[in-house]
Each structure stands twice: as C-alpha cells, then as structure tokens.
Amino acid sequence: MRISVIGAGALGTFYSAMLSSSGQDVTLVCRERDVEALGRGVHVTGLLERTAHPRIAARPPPSDLIFVTVKTYDIGSAARGIHVEPDTLVVVIHNGLGGDEMAASILGKGHVAAGVSYSGVTFLEPGKVRLSGYTETVLGSVEPEVQKRLDVAKEALEKAGLMARITPDIRAAQWEKLYANIAINPITALTGLNNGAILEIPELEALAAEIVDEASMVSKALGIKTSIDPVENAFKVMRDTYNNRSSMLQDVTRGKRTEIDALNGKVCELGRAAGIPTPRNDTITALIKGIEKRHSS
Ligand SMILES: NC(=O)C1=CN([C@@H]2O[C@H](COP(=O)(O)OP(=O)(O)OC[C@H]3O[C@@H](n4cnc5c(N)ncnc54)[C@H](OP(=O)(O)O)[C@@H]3O)[C@@H](O)[C@H]2O)C=CC1
Ligand SMILES: CC(C)(CO)C(=O)C(=O)O
Fold first, then answer.
1. Fewer beta carbons within 10 angstroms: which end of the chain, N or C?
2. Which part of the chain is the Ketopantoate reductase C-terminal domain (predicted)?
3. Mutate to test the pocket of ligand 1, among 4, 5, 11, 257 (most ligand atoms within 8 A of CB)
4. Domain holding 239: CATH number?
5. Are 200 and 254 found together in one domain?
6. In this structure, which ligand is nearest to the CA of 28?
7. Same domain assignment for residues 130 and 29
8. Residue 185: CB partners within 8 Å, gap ≥ 6?
9. What ipTM score was computed for the predicted complex, to two decimals?
C-alpha cells in the first residue's frame, strides 16, 4: 500500500518515521526547502527513538492512504495538491474544528476522514522531532462509506506500533480535544507559561474553566454528545502535559500564525450562529489576533 504523509513538521515527521521504520511504503511530502535535509532521514527522540528513510517529495504522489498533518489554515492548500484515485483515503489529523470539512469540500465525497491525535511532538529542525507524550490516534469520518474503510488506516498505524481507535462519532472526539486546546493553548500563548502552570494560579484556572464552560454550552446546543466532563478533561490534559509548551505558545514564540480561528474562534463563530454568548472566547480570540498582528507588521 502506498502511504503519503503531507507536512514535515512535528506530527508529520513523527508519523512518517514510525510508518516507514515498520517497513511500509511511505512518502513524506514537504516544502521544497526541506527536501535535501529530509533526504538524509527522519529521526524521533524522546519517549521513542526511531530513524527512518521514507521517500521525500515536494508534491503528493499517487497514494492509497494519505495522512495530512499540516496546520488547520494550510489544509485547503494541501488538499488542492492531492490527486485522489477512486479508493484513496485521506485522513486529516488536526486540532480544532473544520479541517476535514475543508478537505472534503475540495476532494469531494468518499475520501476524507479526520484524525484526533493525543501525541505531544516538538519540532526541533527539519527531519528531527522530540516525542514528549504519546497515547492514541482517534479516527472517524462523518461519511458512512469512508467510515467503513477506516480499518486500512488503523492497521497501518498499528503496524507502525502506534495506538489507533476508530470512533463512531468523530465530531464528539474532536470536541473532547477542543475543550482542552481552547483553554490551554491561548492562555499559555498569552502568558508564556507551561500547560500545568495554569492550575497553579487560581485566576487562570477559573478563566480556563469559564472558556470551556462556554464551549460546552455551544456543543450542547449543536447536539454534540461527549462522554467526558469538559472542564475536568481540560484540567486532566493540563496535568498530563504539565511541562509542555503548547503548540500555540511555540507558534507565537516563533512569530508564526496560530490556529486560533479553528479553536476559540470557531467556538465564537458557532456560538453566534446558535445564539449562545461566548464573551471569554471572544476576548481570548481578539488578544491572540493582536499578537499575530504584532508579528505580521
Ligand atoms: N505537534 C503536536 O504535538 C500536535 C499537533 N496537532 C495538530 O496537528 C496539526 C499539525 O501540527 P504540527 O505538526 O505541530 O504543525 P507544524 O507547523 O509543525 O507542521 C506543519 C508542516 O506542514 C508544512 N506544510 C504546510 N502546508 C504544506 C503543503 N501543502 N505541502 C507540504 N508541506 C506543508 C509546514 O510548512 P511551513 O512551516 O512552511 O508552513 C510545516 O512544515 C495541527 O492542527 C496541530 O494542532 C495535534 C496533536 C499534537
Ligand atoms: C494537548 C496540547 C495542549 C499539549 O500541549 C496540545 O494539543 C497543543 O499543544 O496543541
């Protein structure tokens, strides 16, 4: 089976190294500037040590299974570069909401699933990443025909030694992770603190709970049924990733665009449509956009 991984950042380098080192036929699709460095191999350090030599390409080759591991705002352009064959399965692994819908709007029906990853991977340099937390990848599609074919992706991940699970309700899985990301990512990006430090400051802990409570009201209005307590789950992720620097903190530190639109921004947008006020998320979204503006000017 021909597997491609699109996006040679933190997650894509990790997944391609794991898939390729298990003997599977893997192409890592990267930016042109990284082709040479990645040609020397990809390396994972930290909780796992792996070195692998996937094929490297600057454009997606014909593939049976494609993992898209780019930031949410790049999913549209990455999808436009994919040529799907009738049976090609595309799994878009991302935080936040709206990424798989964006890919499906470009690639059409019958191809797209979403993945929710609970890994914690830090990008060190092209071809080198550090794994600091690893649990499972949750897979699912809102299209029943695609859902039936997800075993292919699950088996590829398991063959690579990665835990994977197919959920019958991918939207609930995305919201469960979203509750943690909307609390942790912008607060750490604004304060410069590690994830766990939010729990050490009562005012920040209370703010985190209020942000998540608003999102929980929005998700209830949309009929999302999760199996967890949203605030408790966000606090658990803070404890489990105590010393992590969140991806949004890493983005603002490097002067990069953040995923705020797919996280708190999405909660505000859905809240407005459902008539649920989201004042904490509105404020947080505005402040992060202010930081992005500072970097872009
Ligand atoms: N890192 C982590 O631990 C986790 C991340 N996630 C989520 O996974 C997604 C990916 O995150 P992450 O790996 O950290 O992101 P990174 O920014 O580290 O990596 C994305 C990479 O994809 C590249 N890219 C973007 N568009 C294309 C394209 N069309 N073709 C080829 N390469 C492209 C980017 O290049 P450039 O920089 O030039 O734009 C970058 O190298 C995000 O939604 C994130 O929230 C989820 C769980 C954990
Ligand atoms: C789980 C968490 C918050 C870990 O830092 C994450 O997903 C991120 O940083 O984007």
1. C
2. 169-292
3. 11
4. 1.10.1040.10
5. yes
6. 1
7. yes
8. 246, 247, 248, 249, 258, 259, 263
9. 0.98
